[in-house]
Amino acid sequence: METRFVDELHSAIVGKKHIIWDWNGTLLDDVSHAIGVMNGLLSERRLPHLTRERYRQVFNFPVRGFCETLGFDFEKESFDQVCHKFVDQFMEGFRELPLVPEMKAVLFQLHTDGLSQSVLSATDQPNLDAMIHHFELKSVFSHVFGIDNKHAVSKVERGHELIRNTKFALSETVIIGDTLHDLEVANALGIDAVLISHGHQCQTRLRSHHSVVIV
User: pTM of the predicted model, to two decimals?
Assistant: First the structure.
């Protein structure tokens, strides 16, 4: 990651006291791994594979709709079972993944600077906790909020809960994420958003909906 990216990130959060980070694609460099797992599921159903370019063009929340776009038919099979299989296979390989370059240094520098930081993720809570522990990041986060299932649904409800558990004004809080759902969450919570383009959705999609996108 270029120093310019880090500089732009710091500029975008000037005046903020609480940073809410998305996890997958924002801090964890997992896009290629997610595509690989999904392509395995697509192969089992004789459905077309995803390229990285197409994946970042079509990936969306809720994940059920994204899967249906790819050809999954949940009239014929269980969405819950597909989700569990994807998550189980994803978690089998997550230890081989890196964090996004320089992000660990950014997190620890912000922590040293006295900013409060949290994670808000659509990953189920036990697996999110396992990943945070693996990457030795627990000490930099005041709160780590995942969801209570493996369906990767909306983070809005958990976001409201997270806000209630902090002491910071909405104007002092910002969410940093890699998808338009992070923008939706920010709007629902009444806080600012910074979107980054190295994750699960492409720059073109992000810029079509939001002006603060860091490349």
Answer: 0.95
